[in-house]
Write a structure and sequence with these properties.
Elements lengths: L4 H8 L9 E3 L7 E2 L5 E11 L10 H19 L2 E11 L4 H17 L3 E9 L3 E11 L14 E5 L4 H5 L8 H12 L5 H6 L6 E4 L4 H12 L2 E5 L7 H7 L5 H5 L6 E5 L16 E8 L3 E5 L5 E2 L5 H5 L6
Helix pairs in contact: 2-3
The chain binds adenosine-5'-diphosphate and magnesium ion (MG).
Adenosine-5'-diphosphate (ADP) binds next to strand 4 and strand 5.
Length: about 325
C-alpha cells in the first residue's frame, strides 16, 4: 500500500463532526460516547461482501452511500435518531481513487443525518465493507416488531419493487426510468425522519430489505398475528406496474433492497399520519388479523400465492 494504514485513516476517514454526545472519536483504542440521559442506545451492523452484495467494479461512491444507508434504515425502523458509526474496511489494496469516492458517498449521507464516524478497523483482504451505526431514542419508545395487533392497518412508505427491477430491467425502458430504478437500487434513502415520527404512533415497524412478504412476515411472527394484503393498494412505479399488470407480483412482494418502512397502527391513530414529515408518501396496504398467515388478495379478488417468503409465514397456521 502506498498509503500507510494510519495515513489512509487520517486522509479519508478522520473527519470532525460537532456532536456533544462524543467525548472521544477516532484515534484512541475506543471511542467514548455519552448518550443523553433517559435515552436508550440503538445499535446495528451490516456487512457488504464483494461478489455477494455488490459486484467488483461497482461505483465506490454508491457503495459508501449504501453501506451507511442500510444501517440508517435499520435505525429508522426502530424510530432511533442516528448519531455515530464505526467502519470496518477490508480492502485488497489502498486504491486512492476508490477510497476517495467511497468516503465521499459515505460522508455525504452522514452529513445529511449529522452522523459522526467515531472509529473503525482497516485490514487487507477480499473487499468487505462493514459499518456499525448507533442512535438514540427516549427509553421505552422503540418501534419493535412484536407490537402489531389484529385490526391494525399495515402501511408502507415509498414504492415497492423498484430496486429488484433494476437488477433485471425490461428491454426498451426509457433512459430516465432506468436511471430512477438504478438510484433505488444503489442509493436508497433511509426513512429516518419517518421512523422518528412514528414513535408513539406505530405499533410495530420494520425496514424492507428482503421484500414485504418476508419482512411483514417478521412483524406477524413476532406479534403472533396474520394479515391480509390488498395488492391493488401496493404503491408501485410505472415500471413495476407493467410487471404486475401481467399477473407477476414477485417484484413488489419478494424483491429486496427497497429500504422502505413497513409499519402498523390502529385505526384510531390513522389521522396522526397527516402530521408525518413530508418527503415520502405512506400508503395503507392491508390489515393485521388474528388468523396467522399472510393472505394476498389480487385486484380481481383472487388469493395470490406470492412465493418466496410466503411459506415462511404460513408455518404453524395449521392448514399447510
Ligand atoms: P487498534 O489497533 O487499537 O484497533 P487501529 O490501529 O485499528 O487501532 O485504529 C486506530 C484508530 O483509527 C482507532 O481509533 C480506530 O477506531 C480508527 N480507525 C481504524 N480504521 C478506521 C476506519 N476505516 N474508519 C474510521 N476509523 C478507523
Ligand atoms: Mg484495529
Amino acid at each position: 500500500m502506498a498509503l500507510s494504514e494510519f495515513g489512509l485513516i487520517a486522509r479519508f476517514f478522520d473527519r470532525e463532526v460537532a456532536r456533544d454526545d462524543i467525548a472521544l472519536g477516532i484515534g484512541d483504542d475506543a471511542a467514548l460516547l455519552a448518550p443523553p440521559a433517559g435515552h436508550q442506545l440503538a445499535v446495528t451492523v451490516d456487512t457488504m461482501v464483494e461478489g455477494i452484495h455488490f459486484r467488483a467494479g461497482d461505483d465506490p461512491e454508491a457503495l459508501g452511500h449504501k453501506l451507511l444507508a442500510v444501517n440508517l434504515s435499520d435505525l429508522a425502523a426502530m424510530g432511533a435518531e442516528p448519531a455515530w458509526a464505526t467502519l470496518a474496511l477490508t480492502l485488497p489494496e489502498a486504491d486512492e481513487g476508490w477510497l476517495t469516492a467511497f468516503s465521499r458517498g459515505l460522508f455525504a449521507l452522514a452529513a445529511d443525518h449529522q452522523v459522526a464516524l467515531v472509529g473503525g478497523d482497516t485490514t487487507r483482504g477480499p473487499r468487505t465493507l462493514t459499518l456499525q451505526a448507533g442512535g438514540y431514542l427516549p427509553a421505552g419508545t422503540a418501534l419493535c416488531r412484536a407490537g402489531a395487533r389484529a385490526g391494525d392497518g399495515i402501511y408502507v412508505s415509498g414504492t415497492l419493487g423498484d430496486a429488484a427491477l433494476a437488477l433485471d430491467p425490461p428491454a426498451g425502458l426509457a433512459a430516465d426510468q432506468l436511471e430512477a430504478l438504478l438510484i433505488r437500487l444503489h442509493r436508497p434513502e433511509p426513512r429516518v425522519a419517518l421512523g422518528r415520527a412514528l414513535r408513539g404512533v406505530a405499533t410495530a415497524a420494520i425496514d424492507l430489505s428482503d421484500g414485504i412478504n418476508a419482512d411483514l412476515g417478521h412483524i406477524l411472527a413476532a406479534s403472533g398475528a396474520g394479515a391480509t394484503l390488498e395488492l391493488a393498494r401496493l404503491p408501485l412505479s410505472a415500471a413495476v406496474s407493467a410487471r404486475t399488470a401481467a399477473g407477476d407480483w414477485r417484484l413488489p412482494l419478494s424483491g429486496g433492497d427497497d429500504y422502505e418502512l413497513c409499519f402498523t397502527l390502529p385505526a384510531e391513530r390513522a389521522a396522526m399520519l397527516s402530521a408525518l414529515p413530508a418527503g415520502v408518501a405512506v400508503t395503507r396496504v392491508g390489515t393485521v388479523e388474528a388468523a396467522t398467515g399472510l393472505r394476498c388478495i389480487a385486484p380481481d379478488g383472487r388469493v395470490v400465492d406470492a412465493g418466496g417468503g410466503y411459506q415462511h409465514f404460513r408455518e404453524g397456521d395449521g392448514d399447510g
